[in-house]
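Input record (one chain):
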Amino acid sequence: MRGGFGLVGPRRERHVVPAVDLYLLSLPVGDDGVVIGVDAEGRPAVLGVNRPTPYEVTLIGGLWTAQVLALRAAATGARVAVETGRGHVWSGLAQAAGGGQQCVTLHDVGRVPPQGASAGSPVLVIRDCGMRPPRGRVVAGPWQSVLTLLPYLSPTAPRLLQQSSLVGVQRVSPDEAEQIGRLMGLPRPAVDSLPTLGDGVTLWCTPRDRQFVMTQGTEAETGLFGAARRID
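The corresponding structure, as predicted from the sequence alone:
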């Protein structure tokens, strides 16, 4: 016994790794956040929605993908506030999420109250307000991200795409693909691929980077939302 220090531990050789071999310890883990699917190489694609700075996301796509993102965000500990004019399509998610705790709340358009987001209680606001979403009362801020869902390209899309930190695009018409390509500065192969994307496939892009991601529902998600689909 050593006074105040307890028992002497076992005597073993130290585990030493030469500096040149440190790269072997790397793990195939992306940034902290929500796993939204896999990339073209089958690696997990992660969307970090819980941030200390404002984060705006626009998704031109289907309800299925937005709901999967909402459920997975809630699973990471975020509170999800859904602003929608079709509460009936979100009610099943609100009831199923959180294991009895109210971690997903539904609000009429323009009626989302202040959420009190913090580092210990981050918030994701999902705006499902149709083709012409009004300007929201609750906006992105520290620890509060906002995802706006657009079913198709609309007159408000250019403004939303310009102010968004991240844009997701699912299958769209050739004309819409051309417009999105100009707005986002997409290369020709990416523009040509947009009208042919399969259900569950999203092109996530920023002004600098772009990545195709396949989102596949888990057994629980498929039971709640059905199979992946682009059209609601």
